[in-house]
Specification:
By secondary structure, the protein is α+β, with helices and mostly antiparallel strands. Helices cover 53% and strands 8% of the residues. The protein has 9 helices and 4 strands. Helix 1 links the parallel strand 1 and strand 2. The longest helix has 31 residues. The relative contact order is 0.15. The structure holds glutathione. Glutathione binds next to helix 1.
């Protein structure tokens, strides 16, 4: 059946963010599972939707202009697209929107890439590289400090729960994988637990579990698919 949204998904932090947004918006969607360990992200069909060959991506089958389906790649672009379409989770005032965008971009340019590199050096690198682990775990700790400070006396990153919270939650979900302890960041812990308690987050976790296969025991074949060119050190 053609639901409103097709979500091209794999159970990873960037996938979880968009899944959470769809659950929060309570709109009908289909999951098109992209097995990134098997290389589905490089298929010709997916390449037309996501030319960067990364998940997540969406196809909106019922865009507001009532014309052909619209495809969107890059998780933040997807979050903004969905929030604008449904006029939820993105403040429309100039100040609220700017603040939301700042924290969304901060996640995309800082927290996500740094935590991703920490995951790589801790869990996936074919050889142990102490410098890489220390560098990215320390940078994650610095970024967690920034987030913790922002959340002092605040329930959410901007006034109301927004796509910026959803984006950060997708990565903080994996805090143990980038060696961060939420007991060191009490404001993040409170914020994180309040998002976790939301029915949409619980559904997201339940759905994510069905699709999660990425383990810390990464085979050479998986490394070759995911890290072509850098798997032979
Ligand atoms: N900036 C992109 C990053 C997307 C990304 O790196 N996705 C990962 C999973 S979280 C992926 O598809 N990896 C497959 C690969 O590396 O081949 C976004 O936020 O959408």
């Amino acid at each position: 059946m053609n639901n409103e949204i097709d979500l091209y998904y794999s159970a990873t932090p960037n996938g979880h963010k968009v899944l959470l947004a769809l659950e929060e918006l309570a709109i009908p969607y289909n999951i098109r599972f992209i097995d990134i360990e098997k290389g589905d992200q490089f298929s010709a069909e997916f390449d037309r939707i996501s030319p960067n060959n990364r998940i997540p991506a969406i196809v909106d089958n019922t865009p507001l202009d009532h014309s052909n389906p619209i495809s969107v790649f890059e998780s933040a672009a997807i979050l903004v697209y969905l929030a604008e379409k449904h006029q939820k989770f993105l403040d429309t005032s100039i100040r609220g929107r700017t603040e939301t965008m700042q924290w969304l971009f901060w996640q995309m340019a800082g927290l996500g890439p740094m935590a991703g590199q920490a995951h790589h050096f801790i869990h996936y690198a074919p050889v142990y590289i102490d410098y890489g682990i220390k560098r990215y775990v320390a940078e994650c700790a610095r970024l967690y400090g920034v987030l913790n400070k922002r959340l002092t006396n605040r329930e959410y990153l901007v006034e109301d729960y927004s796509i910026a919270d959803m984006a950060c939650w997708g990565w903080v979900m994996r805090h143990h994988r980038h060696n961060q302890n939420l007991d060191d960041f009490p404001n993040i812990k409170r914020w994180y637990n309040s998002i976790e308690a939301r029915p949409a987050a619980q559904n997201t976790r339940k759905i994510a579990r069905k699709y999660s296969g990425v383990s810390s025991d990464v085979s050479d074949e998986t490394r070759e698919v995911l890290f072509k060119g850098s798997s032979q050190i």
